[in-house]
Write a structure and sequence with these properties.
By secondary structure, the protein is an alpha+beta fold. It has helices at residues 12-24, 33-36, 111-117, and strands at residues 2-3, 6-7, 47-49, 69-72, 80-83, 88-92, 95-97, 103-108, 119-121, 126-128, 137-142, 148-151, 155-163. A four-stranded antiparallel β-sheet has the order 4-13-8-10, with no helix packed on it. The chain is globular, with a radius of gyration of 25 Å. The structure holds deoxyuridine-5'-triphosphate.
Length: 194
């Protein structure tokens, strides 16, 4: 931008001041840059619905800020899957995801099912690899004292899409030293106030 023959480069402060002025004046604006950082555009994920999930809606976020897409049990018509206490089952979702390279799907338990009925994901978080093209299934286990009936369409788990940091392992003869060293597995105890 040129002002009075001099080159003028407006910085972040200039934009924020201008934004606040417009806001005070009651004019409608887009959110300031700092707020917009969090509003990244959603990742597109191709998804294939298999025949046993044809009557089910696609997984969706249940609230504006939810992190997980609810996964539903896709059972055969009229089938009910009863999980006896301490029994496990691989529950089909009827969905094939094409997760983009650099991301993974994490199959996580739903806290409501866990707290109310002891139903959780046995391998939590289950990992759905970016190159997996099979049906996503949920390994549920009943850790409760009562049997639990899973019906077709029941929201049994949630899928969180997360970025994956790919690493290159570099073998070395020694690693650097730290204050913790090799202490772990409860070495700091559990008491907070001494
Ligand atoms: O809860 C899960 C976990 C995995 N999978 C699918 C997607 C994943 O990409 C594939 C393999 O999972 P994982 O790598 O955890 O299994 P593995 O036991 O290491 O098998 P593999 O040798 O096939 O990788 O199985 C699910 O559908 N649900």
């Amino acid at each position: 931008m040129t002002l009075g023959g001099r080159v003028f480069r407006p910085g972040r402060f200039f934009f924020m001041q201008t934004y606040r002025f417009i806001q005070k004046a009651g004019l409608k604006t887009r959110p300031p840059p700092s707020d917009r950082i969090a509003m990244t555009s959603p990742l597109s994920i191709p998804i294939l619905r298999l025949s046993h999930a044809a009557d089910l809606p696609l997984p969706s976020y249940q609230s504006e800020g939810a992190a997980g897409l609810d996964l539903m049990a896709a059972l055969a018509a009229g089938e009910t899957l009863v999980l006896q206490p301490m029994m496990r089952a691989l529950v089909p979702t009827g969905l094939v995801f094409q997760i983009p390279q650099g991301y993974e799907g994490q199959v996580r338990p739903r806290s409501g099912l866990a707290v109310k009925s002891g139903i959780t994901v046995l391998n939590a978080p289950g990992t759905v690899d970016a190159d997996y093209r099979g049906e996503v299934k949920v390994a549920l286990i009943n850790l409760g004292a009562e049997s639990f009936a899973i019906e077709h369409g029941m929201r049994i788990a949630q899928l969180v899409i997360a970025p994956v940091t790919l690493s290159v392992l570099v073998e070395t003869a020694e690693v650097d030293s730290t204050a913790r060293g090799s202490s772990g597995f409860g070495s700091t105890g559990t008491v907070t106030v001494k």
